[in-house]
Amino acid sequence: MAEFTLGARASCPDGFCGVVSRTILDPAARTVTHLVIGPRHGGGGRLVPLDLVEAAAGEIRLRCTLDEFGRLDPADETELVDGGYGDVGAMGMGGSVPGMGLGYSTPLVVEHAVPLGDIEVERHESVHAMDGHIGQVEGFVVDPADQKVTHVLLKEGHLWGPPLGHTG
User: CA-CA distances (angstroms) from residue 32 to 21, 26, 97, 151, 167?
Assistant: First the structure.
């Protein structure tokens, strides 16, 4: 079995490439299709097909070089939204200072790239049973033969403290 823990370090044979931030699943087949690997905080991640991934003792090893990793599909799509106000400048209409704007620039929309028909699961997403909250997602255990999810790894309780109703 292969264990894919969200937040695990990932490396190529020629160096460190990031951490696992999201898992992409095919809900109909109950399989993991991709891992999203990138910087610890924020964008720039890549969609890594599961056939390039090996899980090993708490880390992820990729079967591609850093250069090949950099050419994988981006995990985020960025789009400029029309209708921005432009940069008004720090001194208003008549005497603006370039680069000292008030933040009225063309807005960016960043969306996660998820292959059609698949879903994404991020670290610490809440998991509920019929009788309430049971924990947060920490990762998945996958059968390497068919990429089917055999177990969901959970962190019990709540992200900030003991479960609700816990008396101590």
Answer: 14, 6, 50, 12, 38
Distance CA 123, CA 35 (A): 12
- Is the CB of residue 14 less than 8 Å from the CB of residue 1? no
DSSP codes of every residue in 45-103: -EEEEGGGEEEETTEEEESS-HHHHHTSPBSEEEEEPS-------TT-SSS--TT---S
3-state class (DSSP) for residue 153: strand
The helices-and-strands tally (H runs, E runs) of the chain is 1, 13
Residue 67, CA distances (Å) to 11, 51, 63, 106 in order: 12, 17, 12, 32
* Antiparallel, parallel or unpaired: β 148-155 and 132-143: antiparallel
Sole residue written with tokens 């698949």: 118
CB atoms within 10 A of CB 3: 18
pLDDT digits (tens, 9 = 90+) for 5-14: 888 999 999 9
Distance between CA atoms of residues 19 and 41, nearest Å? 9
Bridge partners of residue 142, in order along the sequence: 2, 149
Q: What is the pLDDT of residues 72-99, one digit of tens each?
A: 998 876 666 665 444 444 444 444 444 4
